[in-house]
C-alpha cells in the first residue's frame, strides 16, 4: 500500500507538475525581483520574502524549456528542501490534490522535454490527466549545474 | 517523563556552573586559604550534581559527587588545598566539561572517569593525617544531620532575637505526622495554616515548598513567632487529625543563641535536658549537611542580586526572525510616511511621526539584543593560559581588561578560535621561560594582557605579551627560506613589515614544534579568519620587550554603513568602509594606459572600472555620459575608481546573505533590503582591486 500524499499542482506550458505539499513553504504572486549578475542564466535574481532574501529560479530555464513572459497567472513557489530555500517561477499554481503514491509510475526517459532524473515519476490522476512529480533534490542539485556551466564556459 | 524539553536548559546551566567552577577554582588557586570561595565552588558543584542526577546522567553526577566530597573536606578545614588537589579537581572539571559537551552533541554523557574518581577518593581517604577521619565524619554528618535540623541564617536569627526582645513568644516546634497518614502534605499544610493564623513561621525544615510537594519524611520542625502560649499551641496542633506528636518549646534569647550555633534538634534536646553537651561534638555534624540547604534557599537570592543583570536565554534564530519581521515593519513605515505625505492630514502625520520615533527606538533595541559581552569568549582563557603555562613550566599572569565590551553574537561565535590561537602563540612563543626571563633581567612571571575596547564602529581586541618580541633576523631568514620574500626584499622591509610576515601562509618560527602552537597551522589561518569577519589583524613588536597583536573587528556583522548607488534601474550598496571618496570625472580625463582605463587621482593614476560592465547592467552605459560620478575605493593602500550613474545616499543597511542556493558571486558580498522592500546587492569592492 502506498501512502496518501498532498501535492501542489503547477503548470509549465501545458504540462502539469506536482511537488509534495510539505516541501512547499508558500506560493506568492510575482514579486519584484532583483537581478543577480554573474550567475546561472536560469537564476532570475533574489526576492525579499518577509525580510528573508531568497533566490528565485525560472523553472522553465532550469529544465531547458523556452522562457516565457510573466503573466497574471505566474507564481513563485517557495520550496524548502535540503536546507535550501529557493523560489520556483512557474506559469501557474492553483490546485492541491490528494493522491496515493501507488499511482505514481516511474517516469519515461523524457517527459515534456524534461530529463527523467529530475522526476520522481508520473501520476495518472485520470484518463486524460497526468501529473509529473518533481524530484526536488535533483532539481536543486548544484553540483551538476556547476559542471554544466564549466563545460559550457 | 520526557526530559528533552529540559535538556537544553540543563546544558546551558551546566555550562554556566562549569564556567563558574573554573573561575572560582582559579581564584582559589590564588588564595588557597579563602574558604568562602570553596563555599561557592561547593554550591555550584552541588547544584550541578543535583541537576545531573535529575536528568539521569549518572556518570556526571557521580564524578561531581566525588569532587564535592573533596571540597566538603576543604570547606570544613579538614583538608588543606594543595597543588595535586587542584590538579585533580581541574582534571575532574575537564572530564565534566567533555561529558556536558557529549550531552550537547546528543550523547549519553558517559565517560570513563574511574582514574579521576580513584584519585579523588584517595584524596578523601588521604595520606594526609588530618583528612583520615574526615570521610567518616562527613558521612555520619549526612545521616545524623539530614533528618531533622534547622539552621538559621543571620537575618532570621536577628528577627527572632528582636521578637524576643519585643516580648513576643519565640517557639521551636517539632511536628511528627502519624505513620499511617496518607496525605502528609495536607496534614502539614493544615498545621502551617493553623500556625499562620496566630503568628509567623520564620523558618522551617524542610522548606515549605518541599513540604507542599511531600518531600519530607514524617516530621518537620520550625521557628515560630506568636503571642500564644506554648502549651496552648501544642494542643491546637495535636487537634489536627493524624498528627502523631508535637513538641513546642519556648525559647529565650540565650537558648536561641545556643540553638542557632548548634544544630537545632540537638539544641532542643539540650534545652530539654541541659546535661547534654551540645556545643562541641554535634556542631560540625549539624553544620555539614544543612549548610548547602540554607545556602540554596538563603544565598540564592543574594547571588542573583550580585549578578550584573537578570537575563533570559533566547534562541538566536528567534532574534533573527524578530529582526526580519522588524525590517518588514520599517518598510511599511516608509510606505505610511509616503501616504501621510500625500493625504496631508495633521492627525495622520503626527501619528505616523510618533510611530517612526517609536520604531527607531525599537530598532536600536532589536540591534542591541544581539550584542554579547566578549567575556563569554574571554572567560575560558584564564584557565587555558594557566594550563598552558603549567605544561610549559612558565609563569604567566593573564590580565583581562574590558571583558564587558559588547560585540555582535555572530562575531563572538567566530572570534574564539583565532583568539585561542593568538593566546597560545603568546604563551608558547611570546613569553620566555623563567630562566630566560631572569637572564634578560625581567621579572620571573611573564604578563599577557588581553584587552578589548570600542573605538568608533569597531571593537579592538589586543593581545600583548612582555616576552621575546619578534626577532627580525630569524623571521626574515625563515621567510626567505620558505620563499615568502626574496632576500633583497627582506632587507628593505621595516621591522613592522617583517613582523607581518608571521601571517604569511605556512609560517612558523618556533624551532621546536610543541604541541601547543606550531602544529603546522600558522598564524595565516588566524588572519584569514579575522578577515573573513571583516576585521584586520596587525603585529607590533619591540625585540626583547614583547609583541602586540591587535585585532580590529566590526561591531556587528549584520549592519554596516553603506553608500547606495544607482545604475540604470538597479540599485547597489557599497560599504562605506572601503570608500575613500566620491567625485566626478569628465570624459576627456579618462586615459588608456597599457590597455587599462586610468584616471588621474591626486598625484597618480588609478584604474577606472565600469561597474555597469562588470555586472552586465542592461540599462546603463557610462560611455554615453559626458561627466560620470565615481567612487574611489581602497583595498589596503591600493586605489581604484568605480563609475556609477547616481548616488542615492548614505544608509545603515542590514546585511543578508543571498541564500545557500547561489554559489558565491565575485564582487557581491551579500544583499540588503531597502526601504521600499526591494532587495539591493552589496558590492564587495575588494574583489575589483587585484
From TrEMBL, chain A:
Specify the CheW-like domain's residue ranges: 4-145
Native source species:
Paenibacillus zeisoli
Q: By its UniProt entry, which SUPFAM superfamilies does this protein fall under?
A: CheW-like
Q: GO biological process: what's one of them?
A: chemotaxis
**What is this protein's record name?**
Chemotaxis protein CheW
Q: Which GO terms describe its cellular component?
A: cytosol
User: Which PROSITE patterns does this chain map to?
Assistant: CHEW
InterPro entries of this UniProt entry?
A: CheW, CheW-like_dom_sf, CheW-lke_dom
Automatic annotation (TrEMBL), chain B:
User: Which intervals carry biased composition (Low complexity)?
Assistant: 280-295
Q: Where is this region: Disordered?
A: 280-307
Phosphohistidine PTM positions read: 46
- A GO cellular component annotation in the UniProt record: cytoplasm
The record's listing under InterPro entries reads: Bact_Chemotaxis_CheA, CheA-like_dim, CheA-like_homodim_sf, CheA-like_P2_sf, CheA_P2-bd, CheW-like_dom_sf, CheW-lke_dom, CheY-binding_CheA
Report domain CheW-like positions. 559-690
Domain Histidine kinase span(s) in chain numbering: 307-557
Q: Which EC numbers characterise this protein's activity in its record?
A: 2.7.13.3
What are the recorded Gene Ontology BP terms? chemotaxis
- Is-annotated flag, keyword Transcription regulation? no
Keyword tags: ATP-binding, Chemotaxis, Kinase, Nucleotide-binding, Phosphoprotein, Transferase, Two-component regulatory system
SUPFAM superfamilies, sorted: ATPase domain of HSP90 chaperone/DNA topoisomerase II/histidine kinase, CheW-like, CheY-binding domain of CheA, Histidine-containing phosphotransfer domain, HPT domain, Homodimeric domain of signal transducing histidine kinase
- Chain ranges of the HPt domain: 1-103
Which GO terms fall under molecular function for this chain's record? ATP binding; phosphorelay sensor kinase activity
Keyword RNA-binding found: no
**What reaction is this protein's catalytic activity?**
ATP + protein L-histidine = ADP + protein N-phospho-L-histidine
What protein is this chain from?
Chemotaxis protein CheA
Report the source organism. Answer: Paenibacillus zeisoli
Amino acid at each position: 500500500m502506498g501512502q496518501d500524499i498532498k501535492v501542489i499542482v503547477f503548470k509549465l506550458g501545458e504540462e502539469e507538475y506536482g511537488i509534495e505539499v510539505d516541501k512547499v513553504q508558500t506560493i506568492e504572486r510575482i514579486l519584484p525581483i532583483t537581478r543577480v549578475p554573474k550567475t546561472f542564466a536560469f537564476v532570475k535574481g533574489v526576492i525579499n520574502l518577509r525580510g528573508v532574501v531568497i533566490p528565485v529560479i525560472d523553472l522553465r530555464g532550469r529544465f531547458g524549456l523556452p522562457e516565457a513572459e510573466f503573466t497574471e497567472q505566474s507564481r513563485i513557489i517557495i520550496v524548502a528542501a535540503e536546507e535550501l530555500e529557493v523560489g520556483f517561477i512557474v506559469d501557474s499554481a492553483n490546485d492541491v490534490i490528494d493522491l496515493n503514491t501507488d499511482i505514481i509510475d516511474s517516469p519515461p526517459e523524457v517527459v515534456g522535454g524534461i530529463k527523467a532524473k529530475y522526476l520522481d515519476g508520473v501520476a495518472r490522476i485520470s484518463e486524460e490527466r497526468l501529473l509529473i512529480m518533481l524530484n526536488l533534490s535533483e532539481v536543486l542539485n548544484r553540483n551538476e549545474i556547476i559542471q554544466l556551466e564549466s563545460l559550457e564556459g | 517523563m520526557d526530559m528533552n524539553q529540559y535538556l537544553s536548559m540543563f546544558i546551558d546551566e551546566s555550562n554556566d556552573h562549569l564556567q563558574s567552577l573554573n573561575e572560582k577554582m582559579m581564584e582559589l588557586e590564588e588564595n588557597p586559604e579563602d574558604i568562602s570561595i570553596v563555599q561557592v565552588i561547593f554550591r555550584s558543584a552541588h547544584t550541578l550534581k543535583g541537576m545531573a542526577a535529575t536528568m539521569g546522567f549518572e556518570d556526571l553526577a557521580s564524578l561531581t559527587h566525588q569532587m564535592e566530597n573533596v571540597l566538603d573536606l576543604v570547606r570544613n578545614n579538614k583538608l588543606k588545598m594543595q597543588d595535586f588537589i587542584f590538579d585533580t579537581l581541574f582534571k575532574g572539571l575537564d572530564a565534566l566539561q567533555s561529558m556536558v559537551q557529549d550531552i550537547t552533541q546528543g550523547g549519553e554523557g558517559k565517560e570513563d572517569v574511574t582514574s579521576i574518581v580513584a584519585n579523588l577518593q584517595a584524596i578523601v581517604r588521604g595520606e594526609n593525617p588530618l583528612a583520615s577521619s574526615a570521610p567518616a565524619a562527613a558521612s555520619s554528618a549526612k545521616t545524623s544531620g539530614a533528618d531533622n535540623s534547622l539552621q538559621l541564617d543571620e537575618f532570621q536569627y536577628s528577627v527572632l532575637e528582636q521578637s524576643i526582645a519585643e516580648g513576643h513568644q519565640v517557639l521551636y516546634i517539632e511536628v511528627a505526622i502519624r505513620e499511617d497518614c496518607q496525605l502528609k502534605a495536607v496534614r502539614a499544610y493544615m498545621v502551617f495554616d493553623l500556625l499562620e493564623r496566630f503568628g509567623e513561621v520564620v523558618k522551617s525544615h524542610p522548606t515549605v515548598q518541599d513540604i507542599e510537594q511531600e518531600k519530607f519524611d514524617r516530621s518537620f520542625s520550625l521557628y515560630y513567632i506568636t503571642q500564644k502560649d506554648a502549651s496552648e499551641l501544642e494542643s491546637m496542633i495535636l487537634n489536627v487529625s493524624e498528627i502523631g506528636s508535637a513538641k513546642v518549646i519556648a525559647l529565650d534569647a540565650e537558648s536561641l543563641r545556643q540553638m542557632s550555633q548548634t544544630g537545632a534538634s540537638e539544641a532542643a534536646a539540650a534545652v530539654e535536658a541541659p546535661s547534654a553537651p551540645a556545643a562541641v561534638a554535634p556542631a560540625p555534624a549539624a553544620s555539614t549537611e544543612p549548610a548547602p540547604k540554607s545556602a540554596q534557599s538563603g544565598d540564592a537570592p543574594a547571588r542573583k542580586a550580585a549578578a550584573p543583570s537578570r537575563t533570559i536565554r533566547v534562541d538566536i534564530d528567534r532574534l533573527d526572525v524578530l529582526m526580519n519581521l522588524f525590517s518588514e515593519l520599517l518598510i511599511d513605515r516608509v510606505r505610511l510616511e509616503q501616504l501621510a505625505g500625500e493625504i496631508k492630514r495633521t492627525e495622520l502625520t503626527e501619528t505616523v511621526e510618533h510611530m517612526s520615533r517609536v520604531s527607531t527606538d525599537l530598532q536600536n533595541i532589536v540591534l542591541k539584543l544581539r550584542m554579547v559581552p566578549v567575556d563569554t569568549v574571554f572567560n575560558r582563557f584564564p584557565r587555558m593560559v594557566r594550563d598552558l603555562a603549567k605544561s610549559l613550566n612558565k609563569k604567566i599572569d593573564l590580565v583581562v581588561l574590558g571583558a564587558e565590551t559588547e560585540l555582535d553574537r555572530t562575531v563572538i561565535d567566530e572570534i574564539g578560535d583565532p583568539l585561542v590561537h593568538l593566546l597560545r602563540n603568546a604563551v608558547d612563543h611570546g613569553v620566555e621561560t623563567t630562566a630566560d626571563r631572569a637572564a634578560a633581567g625581567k621579572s620571573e612571571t611573564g604578563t599577557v594582557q588581553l584587552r578589548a575596547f570600542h573605538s568608533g564602529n569597531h571593537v579592538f581586541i589586543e593581545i600583548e605579551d612582555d616576552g621575546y618580541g619578534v626577532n627580525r633576523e630569524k623571521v626574515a631568514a625563515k621567510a626567505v627560506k620558505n620563499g615568502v620574500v626574496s632576500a633583497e626584499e627582506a632587507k628593505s622591509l621595516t621591522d613592522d613589515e617583517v613582523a607581518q610576515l608571521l601571517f604569511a601562509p605556512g609560517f612558523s618560527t618556533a624551532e621546536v614544534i610543541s604541541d601547543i602552537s606550531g602544529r603546522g597551522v600558522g598564524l595565516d589561518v588566524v588572519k584569514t579568519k579575522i578577515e573573513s569577519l571583516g576585521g584586520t589583524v596587525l603585529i607590533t613588536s619591540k625585540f626583547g620587550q614583547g609583541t602586540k597583536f591587535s585585532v580590529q573587528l566590526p561591531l556587528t556583522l549584520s549592519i554596516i554603513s553603506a553608500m547606495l548607488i544607482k545604475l540604470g534601474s538597479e540599485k547597489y550598496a557599497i560599504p562605506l568602509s572601503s570608500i575613500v571618496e566620491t567625485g566626478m570625472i569628465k570624459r576627456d580625463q579618462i586615459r588608456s594606459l597599457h590597455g587599462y582605463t586610468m584616471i588621474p587621482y591626486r598625484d597618480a593614476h588609478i584604474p577606472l572600472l565600469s561597474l555597469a560592465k562588470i555586472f552586465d547592467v542592461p540599462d546603463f552605459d557610462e560611455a554615453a555620459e559626458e561627466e560620470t560620478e565615481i567612487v574611489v575605493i581602497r583595498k589596503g593602500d591600493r586605489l581604484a575608481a568605480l563609475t556609477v550613474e547616481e548616488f542615492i545616499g548614505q544608509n545603515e543597511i542590514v546585511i543578508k546573505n543571498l541564500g545557500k542556493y547561489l554559489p558565491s558571486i565575485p564582487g557581491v558580498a551579500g544583499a540588503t533590503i531597502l526601504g521600499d522592500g526591494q532587495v539591493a546587492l552589496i558590492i564587495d569592492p575588494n574583489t575589483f582591486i587585484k
